[in-house]
Amino acid sequence: MAAKRGITLYHSPASRAFTAYWLLEELGVSFQVQTVDIAKGDQKKPEYLKLNPSGKVPTLTDGKVVVSENPAICLYLADRYGYGSLAPKIDEIERGAYLKWMVYSTAVLEPLLVLHGKHIDLPGRETGFGAYDDVIGVLTESLKGRKYLLGDRFSAADVMLGSVISTSLYRKELPEHLVLMDYNARLTHRPAYHRAADATWPAHLFPQA
Question: What is the mean pLDDT of residues 17-27?
Fold first, then answer.
């Protein structure tokens, strides 16, 4: 499973790999896709573990570069292929918020939703990501009156955090708060979102708006 020249995305249908696929579509870069069927255990095969020892999807290769973990993949792709557009430049004021939301998506929101789904709601002082109600408050207040996370500017942070919000709303893991629903509607109407969803999510599992 050696990396080919150019970009290759290793993904599995109906998985978190949707995020990386969506960003690649937004960037409009050429890429190849290699399916790693997690339902069949392909992610634990030796050849794949050489790329990603965690045995998770997605993994992205760009020539000899190997990147795993969705936020890292999004940061890499946006800086390399969308710097100044989908990724604010290092000296732009928005760069700080952009980085925060990238990390927030999987360091805060994803683990919180997993615990909440198992009816485990810990006091905010006992975790690094806060209490469930506090996190929902942060999301809704941050998006209130804004088109995207950085205001009117769509960025790779909207792909990263937005993909978690979108799939979580569909799975009823997030409350159908008007602010979240409106934000999700804007994301799901993007052509690149539809192309990625068509390619990675069976329609019966994730019907699009």
Answer: 97
